[in-house]
Sequence to fold (1179 residues):
Amino acid sequence: MLLNYYNDTITLYRKSIYRKLLESKDPTIIMALFRQRPLKGVFYQQNEYSLLLSLFLDASEYANVTHNWYVTAFSFINQIYFPDGSSVNRQEVEKNFINRGDLIRKEKFSLKTIREVIQVFLKGEKHIILNHSKNSDMLVFYLCILTFQNLTKEDILELKDEYIQLIPFIYQYSASSRLPSYAMDKLNDSIPINETNLSIARRFNSRPRSQQPNYLHYLIQYYGIEIIEKESLNFYLSWKSKPKEQRNDITLFTFAEYMIESSFIRYHLQELYDYFWDAINIRNNYVYFLSVWGLYIERYGIVQPKHFNNLIEFLSNKCKIMTKNQNSQNPTIYEFHTTLLASNPEYTISNFRDIVKNYTNKPFNFIIYLNQLLLKPSIIHSIKTNKNSTKLYDDIKRVRSKSPEHFCYLLEFFMAYEKVSKYTNMIPQFIGAINSNKKWLVRDENFFNSILRFYNIIKQKNPKEAKQLFEITIRSFIRTLESDNKSSMVKFDIIYPYLSDIKEIKYLFKQTKELLYDSNQFIEIFKHFINLDQIGEKFIQENLDSMIDMEFKSTNKNQNLYRILGILDGLSRFINLETQVTKLMNRYFQMVPNLIAHSIYINSKACQMTFKLLTNLLDISNGYERFVESLLFVDYTTDDTNTIPFTKIKLIFEDNLKVFDSVHQLIFNNKNNHIDIPQQDIIRIHNQLVSGIINQWNLVELSIHSINMTLMHFKPLISLDSSLQDNLLKQFKSFDVISKKSILRYIKENDIRILEYLNDFTLTGFIFNHNKIEQILNNQTPHIQNLIIQKFVGYIIRDKSTKPSDILSLSLVSKLFFRSVCLTFQHCKIQLNQGLPDKYQISRRKWSFMSLGCYHLNYKDLERFHYQDVEYIFYQLSSLTIHKPMIYLVNREMSNLTHLDIEIHMNFTDMTLSCILQMMNHCFKLESVKFSFIYELNSNRISQIDAIFQKLFLNNSSTLDKLYFGYPAIYNTELIESIESIIDHIKNHQTTHPTTFKYQIALTLKTESNRDTFPNLDRLVSLTSSCTHFILENFYNFLGQLKPNLFLKLQSIFIQVVQLNSDVVDFIMSPEIELESLTIFGDYQTLQKIDLFKKPNLKKVKCIFAAQQPIQYIDYIFSVVNQNQSIKSLKIFKGDRQSINIPQSTQSNYVYKSPYTTDVHQLNLGEFHSIDINHFIKY
Fold:
């Protein structure tokens, strides 16, 4: 019965019922638990001692293990390994899991825990229906790769028997089991039309190597190779004893790969090769199988001729690797082919011309594989010693003569075959390929390594030819690195061994400065040569100076700025770059024309980099002073205003000022910053700064944010020069009254004492009384003090910006503060922007904030309380929100309930409405009710709503003062009449309570697509005429029907729209529509129809942007709403909502946050004042 009631296992867990049921030892109960949906993802912040792993194992003795049992057990284990909810990149860890500090935990695992994990794995494996389980796959990874470094050596040795049991499963679930399989029907795929030699070679360069991570590494290290080989042999004997159809061939090849060095393998090669052939001939994973067999052939050769013949036939007939334009998809096949041919040089030499011809018929880049074959020791020896060696060599020379690119691909072979004295003659034959413009040519590591090795050999005896070859190769290398950086075809490590001469290094730097834009690559080059002492500080400084000069001459200054900033930041910790940093800062603000379009987006990054550079200077005072000078370096007012309008010049200066101010804040107001600038230097520099700004600009022309930034830089000053004081006074007098008040308020709030003379009536003719009232509590009674503390605490907690951590800190001040927090939760609705994760259970115990009770709750959050507390919490509520299906039958009075918010969604059943009606029978003090339907109504639901409203008005006639009823438009005549009946109940109640009762009826018009068709809105006149709030979403099919005379009672409108149609604008602006509130959800282009905000008598405006907008756009909105004297409230949000039917339901459907900055001083508010970062009001 309990399991039927709580159909969600997570609810059982949170209510502490799950553990009790597991402990019951009742097979019926436990089996029912195991059939429930698995518990996943609800155990964050728990450790191995708080989880139920042992209990879960014990419970499995009383009922059959199911898949759900294994999934839930794995969830427990996953939280043991990652208690904070983090994870690791498995592929990255598998590449290198030895001696990695990031895999070591703060606390080691206990022996008991790992033993239980292995028991869960073994028990789960016994009940897997299919051969492969994702849970088992991950557990093998955890146990073999992430566990040993987190156990003591004693515990590792204790676990020997358990780990030995895992060996068969390690072969089953190692990394090779996750390699992609290639079906046989894809072996004959033709090369796609869009397939290029470049993509083929990239696939070759990034191909998975045959060597897979060894999951037996730690087992071998701690338990010895002998016992691993012994148990592996048992696995092999067990594997081959199974019927053919039950064998897992991947496990055989994994076993073979891990045990390739074993003496057992050497004595059973014939048998193992037979099994290899059977698997390759019938299975899909032939690519991995061939890669492992290739390792064996390289080490042990071919045991019997039949295997060679079978494989040649397989590759030729089934894989068709020698057929022109067939199966170029898998580089591993071609590598295996070269290994196979090298194992039988007699066959290869006998068929040499055909093999060479087949490779040349393939796409040009397949000469790579011919080069691999020719370099095999057995093949090159056979060519040299064969009686027909001249003819064989001629066949190869015919390939190289096809093009310089063909020669380049075969260069390694010719270097190995020819004498060094003939190298110089080769250069003209392949040098043209290095800078070839043929798109199919792939310049990968092997390409450049061969050429540079060739260069290194000839540079002493043939310096002229070598120099030409070197310069062309380096230039091509840098171009490749820059154009193909993401694919990692080449890295600088390739060329370092070949750079031993200062001339070579200088040429490399010359090319990187011209062609390379990745600052990280620059840093690596500089660091490499610094570490080798091949170049000095002076060399690097000179190169950076020339780079700075070159960067600021280029056209793409924004990109180049970050390149040089990144380089200086990366290198400044290794060498002294003070001159270069200050030089760059001096140049930065000369980039005025190029910052016009982009400065909004680049400045945050620029200020972070600038801060890093300044803090790395030895003389921070000098660097900071130079930085100030760079801000004032450009005379913005002298620019050609015919080319750059003054308004844009002003924006440029203000953006640069923001960069400067951001850096200033990072330097002086950063808690983690320990920079010490002498006070006399600060005063001198700030005096220089403010004097420069005041002399260059009239503050009246700047935004309020720029003015405030400038004023703040006066704060350190002790005295002002008389000319500066007079100039500032003159500018202040030019401001309007509102701006003067704002400036004087800012000066007072920020304690800028040097500017208090601006509030002297005798100097300015203006004075502003701040009305700062200080209250002294010492002489008050304790009761008054307590009351003030409660008010103070309540105010902070109710603030939407308050974080849960802030509330906790407040409660820990004293017992009185803790009680004040509890009283606030008891008597106020608390809305936390940063909600508490729903994985935690809520308590009513002594030190809980809910110990005195809870004022407001969402119905869905009842499950977070202990099941013994649920009833108490529910019946004492004063405010209740129901946005999830209700299953609780209320059977006694809700004595405190005054506020009720109900939102009916698609997943609600009729039972929910029945439960709400039952609850209405016990509600007698409701003051405000909100009832919203956001999906289609039917006759049964409408009749239930009608009954709910009748009971609502009957029981709460004297208390109800606010009602919201929202519903979607309906077109069925019978249903319209039923809705009219509900609306009549509302109107009748308003008639009998004209002064105390207010209602809002919200109608939603929405089409799901532009193809939807709807009847004429005139049919809904009985509904539209009573509508006070109108919601328009995807309303294009209603255009032409929005008539003002249908909505004569309309007070507010919500619109979600991409582009405002003229019909909608005309409808809203019609004199017949007397709006008080307007909300628009869209982007700035939508709000360009800004005339909507000029509507007479409009009091409230809300703008919700779907994406972040530049701050200038928001300033423009403020400038428009400031012109409408009736608007008293403006809210600006960034919103993200999947469905906008009822905009008031913000908690569940919106993610609200400030779209620009938490610093509202950046906005030009005009007559508005900020209540918080989203809400602005006008007095």
Q: What stands out?
A: Residues 418-516 form one domain. The chain has a mean pLDDT of 79.
